[in-house]
């Protein structure tokens, strides 16, 4: 990442094609030293600055406030492109889009307007501390304010963000509250304990929340201290599960592209066979393997596109969406995710079969793709996604909305 983003971009994209072209430019910059940055494990301040300077952080923001005004179909494609350059940064931008959209999912119209204007104008980068498997943050009332306290094991992107989405439960009730707070304040303490196999630059470590105050008026979706529920509130899970699928597909695409370049330039043909070829690219098993993997990747991408279309249909009428419509979209998202995981892991592993023993050298860095997909794909058991699709196929049942369905 030696190129200055400020010097690279002087205009803002206006069409979906232009935004995708911008994402490809960002991916190209990231890919030049992705392996080296992964090994260094430094906090990705420069990478987030790149996302801001390129304008990608404002992709979903209102045009009148300087945003791209794009939809989730474009956002998912952007995530795929950025992930092909660096899986960690693809995850960060994907989570950013989800948390940017959180106001629309649960907020009042007034809250949505206020958040989207300020976030877009000021180019906020979002993080989130909403790991549902941890104990909830405890929220106490203090007059017109809410006070958050507790700990979360994961807080992806918050350390490099401007704002963080917090979620907790109001003490003595079953009321869940979401709120957006400044990330850098005395009451938010990052554990700096993210040291994992892959996705090493996502700053996904734990966080302590100590006495963070939020006005009641900023509790998302609450009016007179009461939440106004609707089916659309639960779209956060299908939205982010499809973020995951596109993350894996982008990484898998890069694995295949990187391996193909290595095979063309450096892999030697096997000499101990009755049909010796002059080049590795002429060998049948090499051609067959690349053809198999490419076909599987294209099929998985097509399923992800189908899922995105269903998400778009739900977004078109958020106040009237039915539980059935939401559920059927969630099923296709689950199918897309499971295929993305399976195909991504297969590509990340099998590329070594067509690159050769020398491709395992640390200097090549071909392992980064499998490590990144393997790490993030453990977010929630993929077997349960298969079962959700199975219940729909066999019984016509849709998944009940939970933190993971």
The helix content, as a percent range, equals 40-55%
Total domain units: 3
CATH fold name of the largest domain, please?
A: Butyryl-CoA Dehydrogenase, subunit A, domain 3
Radius of gyration: 22 Å
Number of strands: 9
Distance between the termini: 37 Å
Overall SS class: alpha+beta
Q: Count the helices. How many?
A: 12
CATH architecture of the largest domain: Up-down Bundle
The CATH class label of the largest domain is Mainly Alpha
Q: Main sheet?
A: 7 strands, mixed
Shape: globular
- Please tell me the overall pLDDT: 97
Order of SSEs: HHHHHHHEEEEEEEEEHHHHH
Stretches with pLDDT under 50, minimum 5 residues: none
> Which superfamily, in CATH terms, is the homologous superfamily of the largest domain?
Butyryl-CoA Dehydrogenase, subunit A, domain 3
Strand content: 5-15%
Domain Acyl-CoA dehydrogenase/oxidase N-terminal: 31-112
Pfam family, one: Acyl-CoA_dh_2
InterPro entries: Acyl-CoA_DH_C, Acyl-CoA_Oxase/DH_mid-dom_sf, AcylCo_DH-like_C, AcylCoA_DH/ox_N, AcylCoA_DH/ox_N_sf, AcylCoA_DH/oxidase_NM_dom_sf
Keywords: Flavoprotein, Oxidoreductase
Features:
405 residues, seven-stranded mixed sheet, globular, alpha+beta, Butyryl-CoA Dehydrogenase, subunit A, domain 3, two-stranded antiparallel ribbon, Butyryl-CoA Dehydrogenase, subunit A, domain 2, Butyryl-Coa Dehydrogenase, subunit A, domain 1, 3 domains
